[in-house]
Amino acid sequence: MARTLDNELLQGWMIITVTFLFVALVPFIGPLVVVLTPLPVLYYASHLGRLRGFSVLAASFLTSYGILYLLKQPVHLPTLLMIAITGLLLSEVIKRNYSFEKTILTASLFLFFCGTAFIGLRSWQADIAPWKLIESYVAVLIKENIELYSQLNISQEQIKVIRENTGQITRFFAGVFPALGLSGSVLTVWANLLAGQMLLQVRKFSFPEFGDLTLWKAPEWLVWIFIAAGGMLFFPGEGIVILGMNLLIILCMIYMFQGLAITAFFFRKKQIPRLFRFFFYGLLLIQQYMLLIVVALGLFDLWVDFRKRIKDANHTDDNQ
Asked: Most exposed among 27, 112, 142, 305, judged by the fewest C-beta atoms under 10 Å?
């Protein structure tokens, strides 16, 4: 028993250390990999218990820091800390057996405010306003993307358009940064929660039962906020337009979750092979315009009730 526990501690230390080093040393890793980096921390903090899980995390953190220092590589301390905080936070929240919505909301808001605190601290250290710090961060990202596009098969005219409108693009993304930050927190928590549920249940460890998530739907009254946010885009004041855009981004994310629940319900009812399902979800990550279709599915479900129609069609097929 003691030997098994020692092996688990050693395994946890190695996997979390490799995860940290992977994030620090591989600059262009896929979005799914980045989002799921807190998963090892969640798994070992839940499985080994609070004290042992934290000890393994601290040992991995110090090891990664030491290796990066010896390799003379920059240590992205906020990134590593956010990965660690997300994993630990989720392991603590799931112990409270909240509902699915409350689990997502609690962990996401805490993560969002941690990110906001990091920005506030960095702003204080640099002695500049937080929104100026965000603008400079967005400007650097646009510059890096222009350099990346220059190396890819993208026309010089398109790159020129981006370069000439860098100021407007920077202001736009800086304006919707709160919604993007909150959406990023929710997506990170959601992906790790579902992956953690799958992993821990396969290994026969306890995990909260959230019920059939393919039946999940957003509250109906949200559609009125969605309509109001859309209307705010036509107001003359810039502040109201930015507020409307932030609301629309957050609401589109919520309807995206409802659209994903509908597609999962359809796949299950039609017994679609797992390979095709993975292909479809992978396509969503590569071709982001397909996400708009998923968002539309979730939004119009209020009037169409897709799952009832799928169920009725399935019932008719069974009777024939």
From this structure: 27
φ, ψ of residue 197 to 5 degrees: the values are -60, -45
Residue type, 127: D
- Which of 267-287 are b and which e, b meaning 16 or more Cβ less than 10 Å from the residue's Cβ? bebeeeeeeeeeeeeeebeee
Report the predicted TM-score, pTM, of the whole model to 2 decimal places: 0.84
With a CB cutoff of 8 Å and minimum separation 6, the contacts of 161 are none
Q: Is the dihedral of CA 178, 120, 113, 142 positive or negative?
A: positive
Q: What is the pLDDT of residues 188-202, one digit of tens each?
A: 999 999 998 888 888
Helices 222-232 and 238-269: angle between axes, nearest 10 degrees: 140
First to last CA, the chain: 56
What's the longest Cα–Cα distance across the chain? 72
* Owner of token pair 């994993």: 87
Exposure b/e, 169-190, CB count within 10 A at least 16 = b: bbeebbbbbbbbbbbbbbbbbb
For residue range 197-235, list pLDDT tens digits in order.
888 888 888 888 888 999 999 999 999 999 999 999 998
101-106-111 Cα angle (round to 5): 125
Q: DSSP of 150-207, one letter per residue?
A: HHTT--HHHHHHHHHTHHHHHHHHHHTHHHHHHHHHHHHHHHHHHHHHHHHHHTT---
SS3 content of the chain, % helix, strand, coil (to 5): 80, 0, 20
3-state secondary structure string, 71-135? CCCCCCHHHHHHHHHHHHHHHHHHHHCCCHHHHHHHHHHHHHHHHHHHHHHHHHHHCCCHHHHHH
The pLDDT of residue 9 is: 86
Question: Would you state the structure tokens that stand for residue 188, as one six-digit string?
Answer: 């990170």
